Amino acid sequence: MTVSRPDRRAVVTGIGVVAPNGVGADDFWKATREGAAVLGPVTREGCGELPLRIAGEVRGFDAEAAVEGRYLVQTDRFTHYAMAAADLALEDARFHADEGSPFAVGVVTAAGSGGGEFGQRELQNLWGQGPHFVGPYQSIAWFYAASTGQISIRGGFKGPCAVVASDEAGGLDALAHAVRTIRRGTDTVVVGAAEAPLAPYSMVCQLGYRELSLSEDPDRAYLPFSAEACGFVPAEGGAMFVVEDEGAARKRGARIRAVLAGHAATFTGASRWEESRHGLAHAIRGALEEAHCAPDEIDVVFADALGVPEADRAEALAIADALGEYSAHVPMTAPKAGTGRSYCGAPLLDTAAAVLAMEQGLVPPTPNVTDVCHGIDLVTGFARTAELRTALVLSRGLMGSNAALVLRLGEAS
């Protein structure tokens, strides 16, 4: 039986981003700290007649340049994003797997929708032309675990691999899974999520969410914590990380960017936003306890920020419940208001932004929001300078999951 060792701390050494506001951590952070809003009309083929008009599309991403041809034909757009982000994270970490120790590296990804675009295309071929026009990769490309599988095969990573099939909060749960994997003895885990929900089949499925914004104005479609909040805007993309055992990372001279200090998760049921107050507060308390972190040590909160009035109010109350009177003074932000919510990828983009914010001493603003409600200190307009040592990242899923993650600023090796 594998024994968990709490003394093995999990640290972030590499960040890779494919997002609507930038490909690569540098471009992503520049746009995020400037509060760039990149939401716009949906341009994906076949989506023009659907009532969902505004989304966060990844633009300027060249799949053929980022992913080898033999993998492109086997995989959906969501896996292209994940593989590219994984490459960027490995490059950022300056990590090269030891060919003699392939079992020292694992892979964990989260997925909420899988490869809808690939699956739809193959099913159209099936019904329009017959079974001989359906490719063999239909059986794997749509699957939630496709990104985990392809990243591990492509990199030769034979350590513990997993997929978290969940709603939005699954992105943070994937990081927690990586931490547990590190504690059980694996030295390195490539972990994260990327989504590609902007295809006709996927978008029709999303139209069942009452929380979805159907606004046609990119600047007013997603306004969390605002009096004008009318729902959320979906998005593509996500982030991948290289997470290592701190001892192994220091041994190879890696830069310790952040410590994954604490995580907790709860479940309160689909669209029960008032009840999410108690579930999210319990998750925050659990993450603080695991991190041995007092409420007044939290320097910034990256909010879930659904953009639904009752959900936003519940989140503000949950933070107050968990942090006490200090909650009125801690700065909060929701950069995703400018990029959209990429489901499982959304909290991982927030995690990337949180690490970069701590390194730069800047709380990025919440784009487009001007009239802040619910008595919170939401950073808007421009980035705010602050000493940031500890960050809290929050996520809730439309199906009822709640998760909280405590990050601490890393130290140079």
Automatic annotation (TrEMBL):
GO terms for biological process: fatty acid biosynthetic process. One of its GO terms (molecular function) is 3-oxoacyl-[acyl-carrier-protein] synthase activity. Residues 7-409 form the Ketosynthase family 3 (KS3) domain. InterPro entries: Beta-ketoacyl_synthase (IPR000794), Ketoacyl_synth_C (IPR014031), Ketoacyl_synth_N (IPR014030), PKS_Beta-ketoAc_synthase_dom (IPR020841), Thiolase-like (IPR016039). Gene3D superfamilies: 3.40.47.10. Pfam families: ketoacyl-synt (PF00109), Ketoacyl-synt_C (PF02801). SMART domains: PKS_KS. Keywords: Acyltransferase, Transferase. The keyword Glycoprotein does not apply. Belongs to the thiolase-like superfamily. Beta-ketoacyl-ACP synthases family. PANTHER family: POLYKETIDE BETA-KETOACYL SYNTHASE 2-RELATED, POLYKETIDE SYNTHASE-RELATED. This is Minimal PKS chain-length factor (CLF/KS beta). It comes from Kitasatospora atroaurantiaca. The lineage of its organism: Bacteria, Bacillati, Actinomycetota, Actinomycetes, Kitasatosporales.
